[in-house]
Write a structure and sequence with these properties.
The complex is a heterodimer of chains A (401) and B (358).
Chain A (H helix, E strand, L loop, with lengths): L5 E2 L10 H11 L10 H21 L6 E4 L2 H19 L5 E5 L4 H14 L2 E5 L9 H10 L4 E5 L13 H10 L4 E4 L11 H4 L3 E5 L10 E5 L25 H16 L1 H20 L6 E2 L15 E5 L5 H10 L2 E2 L6 E2 L2 E2 L3 H5 L4 H4 L2 E5 L6 H25 L4
Parallel strand pairs in A: 1-11, 3-4, 3-5, 5-6, 6-7
Antiparallel strand pairs in A: 2-8, 7-8, 9-10, 10-14, 12-13
Chain B lengths: L1 E5 L4 H12 L3 E8 L17 H14 L3 E5 L1 H17 L6 H20 L4 E3 L4 E6 L2 E6 L8 H4 L4 H5 L1 E2 L7 H10 L21 H9 L4 E5 L4 E5 L25 E7 L4 E6 L5 E11 L7 E7 L6 E9 L2 E10 L7 E6 L2 E12 L2
The chains are: A alpha/beta (401), B alpha/beta (358).
Organism (chain B): Leekyejoonella antrihumi
Function (chain B): Catalyzes the 2-thiolation of uridine at the wobble position (U34) of tRNA, leading to the formation of s(2)U34.
EC number (chain B): 2.8.1.13
C-alpha cells in the first residue's frame, strides 16, 4: 500500500489556501484586460487596483510601490539587474554589487551574469556559522569605495536554513551612503512581520506560492524613487517597469493570500514553531548525532523561520535520505541546488563554514499552513530507518575498487 | 521485487524500465551522472551524462509514473573507468571501457548503493538474456545478434547476475523503437549512442594525447629498421593500418599493420598482415559467469564487441586461461576482453594478456 503523503516542503511551494482557490476561481470566470478602456476592462482594472491596495496595506507599502511580476525569480532579476543598469547609467563608477553570500540563485545568478557579461564587481557579505550577516561588514564593504556601489542586496530570511537576516540594520547602513537596498523576502511573508516602509528597503521581492497564493504570481515592492531599467518592454504596464498583460485572477489570489498571511501571522507562527521544535528535538533525540543548521532556540521565531527545520545527518548523502523518506511517504528536500539533477553541496552551508562532506548530508523540512502534529510524527517515525539505510549506502559507495 | 532501472536517457533503458513496471516490480528510475562537469557537455548529443540525457530519462520516468533520481557516480566513474582507460592505454593495452563500466559502476557501485538502500536488483537496457532453469541462472546472447551486448556483460559474476535484469534481450532493436513510439516516449527516435561516452567528439587519439602528453618514438619494422615516427605509442593498437604515416615503403609493397606496441621504449612495431593472425590467447582476470568448468572445454571465443565468434578450446588455471582458437584471429590486442560462450550462454571472460601462434 502506498503510504499517505506527509508534505514537508512548504518552502518549495505551499498549498493554495481555500479562500484563495475561491477568489481565483471566481475571477477566472470573468473576462477583462485591465488595460482596456471599456467597462469590462475597467472591471478587471478595479480588481487589480483593489488587489494592489490590499497588498500594499498588508505589507506597509503604498499601492504605487507594488509591481506585479511572475514571482520571486523575476522580482529578483528586476531588482538586481534593473538596479545595476539604472544606477550605472546614472554614474559610470557604480559597477559594484554588495551581495549576501547565501542568497538564492535567483539573485546569485543575476550577479554572476552581470560579472561575466557587464563587468560588474561583487563584494560578498559573509555569514557566521548560524548563517547570519553582520551589518558592520556591510558598512566596511561600502566604505571601501561608496561611490562604486550600485546596489546592496541581502535576503530577509534564508530559504535553506531559515536564518533571519538583519535587513533593517543593513538597509540603514546602505541609506547612510545613499545606496539602494534590495531584499529577497520570498521566505519571510507569512512567517515574519514584513513592513516595507519600516524595513527601509527600496526593493523587496515576494512570491505568492510560498504563502497560499497560486504559482506564477509575485511582486517587487519598489519605492517610488527607486530607479530601475525594466527587463520586459511592451505595453508599459506597472509603471513601465513590467510590461505584460496583468494576470487578473492570479493577482486577486495574491492579494487574498497576502491579507490572510498577514492577519494570521501570529497564530501561524505559534502553530508552526511548536511543530518545528518538536521535529528538531525529536530528530536530535534519535541519537544519530544529528545537528541543526542555523540558529535554534525553542520558541524563537525572530532568528529562525517558524516553519524551517534544517538538519545535518552525519555519514549520509542527502539524496539517499530524500529517496528513502520519499519512499516512506515523507516529502522533503535537501535544500540545495542541483546540477543536472545532482545535488551539489549547498553554497549556504559552505558559507556557514560547514565542511563539504558534512554539507552533503543536509535535509530541509519546511512547514506551512496545512502542517499538523501527524506530519511531525510521520517524519520522526520514518527517520531512523532512513538514516540507517542511507549511512549504509554511503559507506558502501565510498572510494573505488 | 524492488528494482532500480538504470536510465541513460536513451530509448533502450526507457523501454526496459517500462517493461519492469509492467512485470509487476516496484521500480525507481536512476540516471547516473558520470561527468564531473555535466553542464559543459550540454552540446553533446550522445554520451551518457548530459543534462539533456538526464532530462530525457526524467520525462520517461514521469510518463511511466515511477520516481526518478539522479545519482552522482562521477568520482567512481573517473577512478574506475576513465583513469583505468588512460592507464591501460599508457601501458600499451586496448581496454573496453563499457565492459569496465558494467563491471565496476553499473553492477558494482550502482548495485551496491541500490542494495544498501533496500533494492533487490538493477535493470538495464542491455541486449542480453538471463535464463533461469534447474542449473541456476545463466547469461545468454540477445535474440537480436546485431545488438547483442552479452560481450560487455561477460565480466559479471554469479552474484552480480543474480541481481540483474535485462528485459530487452528477447526483442530486436527495431521492435524496441516501435514499442517506445507506441508508449509515447519522446526518446523513441533518439539516435543510438556509440563510441566512448566520455570522449564526446570521438577522437580517442587526441583525447589520450591531451591526457598523456606527446611521447614521440620510432615506428620500426619486424627487423628493427625505423620506418616512421609517432607522437605517442599509446595511440596505436594492434591490427591498426590507417594513420601510420610510414615514410619507408616495403620493397614488396605489402601493406603493414601495427603488430606490437611497446610503451616502455615508446616503440610501435609494424609488420605484414600474416603476422597479425594469432590462435593462442592467454588471458588473466578470469571470471566465470556460473560454475567453473573443469579441464579443457570447447567454447566459442569472442574477442571484441560485435566481433565474430571463434570455435576454441579453453583451459583454466587459477586466475588465468589459455584459449586455443581453431583458426587464426586478427588484431588481438592486450587489454581486450575474450568472452567465452557455450552456444548462446556466456561461460566467462578474461582479459587478453598475450597472444601467439601455435
Amino acid at each position: 500500500m502506498v503510504p499517505a503523503t506527509t508534505y514537508l516542503d512548504h518552502a518549495a511551494t505551499s498549498p493554495v489556501l481555500p479562500c484563495v482557490v475561491e477568489a481565483v476561481t471566481h475571477q477566472l470566470g470573468q473576462v477583462g484586460n485591465a488595460s482596456s478602456l471599456h467597462a469590462t476592462g475597467r472591471a478587471a482594472r478595479r480588481v487589480v487596483e483593489e488587489s494592489r491596495e490590499q497588498i500594499a496595506d498588508a505589507l506597509g507599502a503604498r499601492p504605487s510601490e507594488v509591481i506585479f511580476t511572475s514571482g520571486g525569480t523575476e522580482s529578483d532579476n528586476l531588482a538586481v539587474k534593473g538596479s545595476f543598469w539604472a544606477r550605472r547609467a546614472e554614474d559610470r563608477r557604480r559597477d559594484r554589487l554588495i551581495i549576501g553570500a547565501i542568497e538564492h540563485h535567483a539573485v546569485l545568478d543575476c550577479v554572476e551574469y552581470l560579472v561575466r557579461h557587464e563587468g560588474a564587481q561583487v563584494s560578498w557579505i559573509t555569514v557566521d556559522e548560524q548563517g547570519r550577516a553582520d551589518p558592520q561588514q556591510v558598512r566596511d564593504l561600502i566604505e571601501e569605495d561608496p561611490e562604486s556601489v550600485a546596489l546592496v542586496s541581502l535576503m530577509w530570511a534564508n530559504n535553506e536554513v531559515g536564518t533571519v537576516e538583519p535587513v533593517h540594520e543593513v538597509a540603514q547602513v546602505a541609506h547612510e551612503h545613499g545606496i539602494p537596498f534590495h531584499t529577497d523576502a520570498v521566505q519571510a511573508i507569512g512567517q515574519l512581520p514584513v513592513d516595507f516602509a519600516a524595513s527601509g528597503a527600496d526593493l523587496l521581492s515576494l512570491t505568492g506560492h510560498k504563502f497560499g497564493a497560486p504559482l506564477g504570481v509575485g511582486a517587487l515592492l519598489t519605492r517610488r524613487d527607486a530607479t530601475l531599467v525594466p527587463l520586459t518592454h511592451g505595453g508599459g504596464q506597472e509603471r513601465q517597469l513590467r510590461s505584460g498583460t496583468l494576470v487578473v485572477p492570479a493577482i486577486r489570489g495574491l492579494a487574498v493570500a497576502t491579507t490572510y498571511a498577514t492577519e494570521h501571522l501570529e497564530s501561524e507562527q505559534d502553530h508552526l514553531v511548536v511543530l518545528r521544535d518538536k521535529m528538531i528535538q525529536g530528530a536530535i533525540d534519535q541519537g544519530f548525532d544529528i545537528r541543526v543548521n542555523g540558529p535554534h532556540q525553542v520558541g524563537d521565531v525572530t532568528h529562525r523561520l517558524a516553519g524551517n527545520v534544517h538538519l545535518r545527518v552525519p555519514g549520509c548523502d542527502g539524496d539517499s535520505l530524500l529517496y528513502l523518506l520519499d519512499a516512506a511517504g515523507v516529502e522533503c528536500s535537501t535544500g540545495s541546488a542541483c546540477q543536472a539533477g545532482v545535488p551539489q553541496p549547498s553554497h549556504v552551508l559552505l558559507a556557514m563554514g560547514v565542511p563539504e562532506e558534512d554539507a552533503r548530508g543536509a535535509l530541509r523540512l519546511t512547514l506551512g499552513h496545512t502542517s499538523t502534529d501527524a506530519d511531525v510524527t510521520a517524519f520522526l517515525a520514518a527517520l531512523p530507518a532512513a538514516v540507517e539505510r542511507a549511512q549504509r549506502a554511503h559507506d558502501t559507495t565510498r572510494g573505488g575498487s | 521485487m524492488r528494482v532500480v532501472a538504470a536510465m541513460s536517457g536513451g530509448v533502450d533503458s526507457a523501454v526496459a524500465a517500462a517493461r519492469m513496471v509492467e512485470s509487476g516490480h516496484e521500480v525507481v528510475g536512476v540516471h547516473l551522472a558520470l561527468s564531473q562537469s555535466a553542464a559543459t557537455l550540454r552540446e553533446s548529443a550522445r554520451g551518457c551524462c548530459t543534462i539533456e540525457d538526464a532530462g530525457d530519462a526524467r520525462r520517461v520516468a514521469d510518463r511511466i509514473g515511477i520516481p526518478f533520481y539522479v545519482w552522482d557516480m562521477a568520482q567512481r566513474f573517473r577512478q574506475d573507468v576513465v583513469e583505468d582507460f588512460i592507464r591501460e592505454y599508457a601501458a600499451g593495452r586496448t581496454p573496453n571501457p563499457c565492459l569496465r563500466c558494467n563491471e565496476r559502476i553499473k553492477f558494482s557501485a550502482l548495485l551496491d548503493k541500490a542494495v544498501a538502500l533496500g533494492f533487490d536488483a538493477v535493470a538495464t537496457g542491455h541486449y542480453a538474456q538471463i535464463v533461469d532453469d534447474e542449473s541456476g541462472r545463466t547469461l545468454h546472447r540477445a535474440v537480436d545478434m546485431a545488438k547483442d551486448q552479452s560481450y560487455v556483460l561477460g565480466v559479471l559474476d554469479a552474484e552480480q547476475l543474480a541481481r540483474a535484469f535485462f528485459p530487452l534481450g528477447d526483442t530486436t532493436k527495431p521492435q524496441i523503437r516501435q514499442e517506445a513510439a507506441e508508449r509515447g516516449f519522446s526518446v523513441a527516435k533518439k539516435p543510438d549512442s556509440h563510441d566512448i561516452c566520455f570522449i564526446a567528439d570521438g577522437d580517442t587519439k587526441g583525447w589520450l594525447t591531451r591526457r598523456l602528453g606527446e611521447a614521440p618514438g620510432p615506428i620500426v619494422d619486424t627487423d628493427g629498421e625505423v620506418v616512421g615516427e609517432h607522437d605517442g605509442a599509446f595511440a596505436y593498437t594492434v591490427g591498426q593500418r590507417r594513420g601510420l604515416g610510414l615514410k619507408v615503403p616495403r620493397s614488396d609493397g605489402a601493406k603493414r599493420y601495427v603488430v606490437d606496441v611497446q610503451p616502455k621504449s615508446s616503440t610501435v612495431v609494424v609488420g605484414t598482415e600474416d603476422l597479425l593472425g594469432v590462435d593462442v590467447i592467454e588471458g588473466d582476470h578470469l571470471r566465470w559467469c556460473g560454475p567453473r568448468p573443469q579441464g579443457e572445454v570447447h567454447v566459442g571465443a569472442q574477442l571484441r564487441a560485435h566481433g565474430e565468434e571463434f570455435p576454441a578450446v579453453a583451459r583454466a588455471e587459477g586466475d588465468t586461461v589459455v584459449v586455443r582458437l581453431d583458426r587464426r584471429a586478427r588484431g588481438v590486442a592486450p587489454g581486450q576482453s575474450v568472452v567465452l560462450y557455450d552456444g548462446t550462454r556466456v561461460i566467462g571472460s578474461a582479459t587478453v594478456a598475450s597472444s601467439t601462434r601455435a
